[in-house]
Model the fold of this input.
Amino acid sequence: MNGMIEFERCPSCGHGSPIRLAPPGRTVDTTLDLIARDPRIANLDPIEFSALSDIDFVICSRCALIFMPRRPTPEAAKRYYSRLFHRIETPLPFDELPLSERFVRRKGAFARDLIRTLDQHGLLESVESVLYVRCNAGEGPRLLRDDYGLREVYALEFLPSCILHARQVHGLEQVERLFVPEFDNPFSRNRFDLILCDESFGHAHDPVRVARLLADLLSDGGRIVAFNEKDHLEFLKSSKLFPYGMNFFHKQLFTRRSLRAFLEAQGFAVEQLPHPTVGKSESRKNSKMLYLLRPGGAAKPEFPSDEVEPLALAFRSWLTAYRWRNRGQRLLSVFRTHGVAPGSGGAARRRRPPARVGFSRK
Ligand SMILES: [Zn+2]
Done:
């Protein structure tokens, strides 16, 4: 398929013969299905839309990585990624200016906690240049500049509205568009002492390539902070977290151990730091990982093959719960006078989903 990559082997450890997770003859619904009939994204030349939405997830029997075996190349994704991101994430209030105060406040609160954690671990000492990937309206870069006195702060972001906010409200000049979570970007000629990456490995179309590009962007002694990466061994146990199908942007579903093993296999020495919590600390949304990466001196990766069974089980339980929820929603919509219009991803997301059915947490 033009513009697509097939991962017949695991994109983390290279092991072959991954195990399918969907029942025979079926595929896994993703958030892409929310907007499947939207005319604005239906023709994603050069990729056929049906090829994008016909998705299976498989699990590697060696390192327990769940991944999408068929996906667009980074080059092909450049043409549509931002458009799709925008449509799927609607109605998150970041599409228009001024950005909603609540959105900016939440991003600011998270950035403050993240940067405080880095400061407490001495990671801002003798740092001169920083690249903040997916800066969410520039709150993090602003703090690094204003509260921590960093002189060279660069940032990348998917959405034009967030870039404009960062430039106009915070006066950040070095904010540019990120077209796909890969790092061929206007700042690629620079070398950075610190790179902050929001969920860059889970979203990567080619994770090994992302690891290499990031390492190439570092100055001597530079470090990478990978944050907002999800531990899916926990995350998948809450059907509430993916009520509209698996997140289409999650190309790899890492766990704490499989992400560490992947990063070590790429040559990084890995240190775990506490991830800032958002909302209730016991929420499964807080099973996120924050890893500090230094090129060189990596430990020998230990691939967590003992996680294959529980993770596959968690995924299939989520799939069953999702199907029941989906069936329930369709039944209910028959009785609603204001049923979900095709392509109205926004309305579908806004509506509170029905109670969980047929799902037991064990
Ligand atoms: Zn593997």
